[in-house]
Write a structure and sequence with these properties.
By secondary structure, the protein is of the alpha+beta class. 31% of the residues lie in helices and 13% in strands.
Length: 97
């Protein structure tokens, strides 16, 4: 599975109230990597959770954020708000199974 390319980072000024280190012009303000894993509390008639996992991975892929899925985690790159929105939606998708 190919890793999607990272988006270009643009140094920015720190907003009012941010820690002093965030004002460094070379800092990539608010860009993070988050690795997460979700699984359903149940399974289908065969004991498989593949449909639930596929739904979560589909949410991540549709987000357009750079991401990588391996055997343990899915890693997403973006701002805090972007990453947490993807995690929330993936959890909700899996919760419907």
């Amino acid at each position: 599975m190919a890793v999607q390319p990272a988006r270009a980072r643009v140094p920015v000024e720190a907003p009012e109230g941010m820690p002093i280190h965030a004002s460094d012009p070379t800092a990539y303000h608010r860009i993070m990597l988050i690795a997460f894993s979700v699984s359903p509390s149940g399974s289908d008639d065969t004991g498989s959770v593949s449909e639930a996992v596929a739904a979560a991975v589909g949410i991540v892929r549709a987000s357009g954020l750079p991401n990588h899925t391996d055997s343990m985690f899915t890693t997403v790159e973006g701002t805090w708000a972007e990453c947490m929105e993807v995690v929330r939606r993936a959890c909700e998708a899996v919760g419907s199974f």
